[in-house]
Amino acid sequence: KNSNGKYTVSLIEGDGIGTEISKAVKDIYHAAKVPIDWEVVDVTPTLVNGKTTIPDSAIESINRNKVALKGPLATPIGKGHVSMNLTLRRTFNLFANVRPCKSVVGYKTPYENVDTLLIRENTEGEYSGIEHTVVPGVVQSIKLITREASERVIRYAYEYALSRGMKKVLVVHKASIMKVSDGLFLEVARELAKEYPSIDLSVELIDNTCLRMVQDPALYRDVVMVMPNLYGDILSDLASGLIGGLGLTPSGNMGDEVSIFEAVHGSAPDIAGKGLANPTALLLSSVMMLRHMGLNDNATNIEQAVFGTIASGPENRTKDLKGTATTSHFAEQIIKRLK
Ligand code: NAD
Question: How much is the pTM?
Answer without folding.
Answer: 0.95
